[in-house]
Amino acid sequence: xxxxxxxxxxxxxxxxxxxxxxxxxxxxxxxxxxxxxxxxxxxxxxxxxxxxxxxxxxxxxxxxxxxxxxxxxxxxxxxxxxxxxxxxxxxxxxxxxxxxxxxxxxxxxxxxxxxxxxxxxxxxxxxxxxxxxxxxxxxxxxxxxxxxxxxxxxxxxxxxxxxxxxxxxxxxxxxxxxxxxxxxxxxxxxxxxxxxxxxxxxxxxxxxxxxxxxxxxxxxxxxxxxxxxxxxxxxxxxxxxxxxxxxxxxx
Length: 251
Fold this sequence. Notes:
This protein has ten helices and no strands. With 251 residues, the chain is an all-alpha fold. It has one domain. The longest helix is centred in the middle third of the chain and has 29 residues, at 137-165.
């Protein structure tokens, strides 16, 4: 099973890709804005669009526009990094594919187990997306199954894990998985004025850890990105078909 070791364990394959100093600086600013400012801008942006263009966008369509804009900016900022990630994926194909397959089943199983942990609050994300699937299925999948996974894997794995991983593997896992989980729930705690919503992080930590592992093994951010898209799609299918609540997969 030597081909499942993290990429930097091989003497001929040091940890890659490493962000440039400019990309690291841009990543710090962008991640801070993504966590603290951007979530509250989407409503204002949509209102401006509605004033100047008679779009009449739904909440889900507004989110699709929001994440599309963010993804386009990230592509411009991290273009060289993403291009190198493609070359690394091709050169590290076997462990990348194994990391994707093993990570997919691990993410499903561990997230399902985490969903069984009794918590004092329900996860609002589940109810929200179950409703949106039936109202706007295409836009819902575009946001939850494609755009948001692409944006967040560039930030949480490509930037955060990759930057911290240069100095400490342990801290890279803790910060990347922890901030990923926190970002999924902190708005509920703030808007509801109930810190118990932060306990919902436990439902997201397994997926975050698996995504970090898949990046560590493959060295290419496209592996956790593809893994996240597959897991999200599976969640959306379960949510659409099941009359009962299912555990969230990083929506």
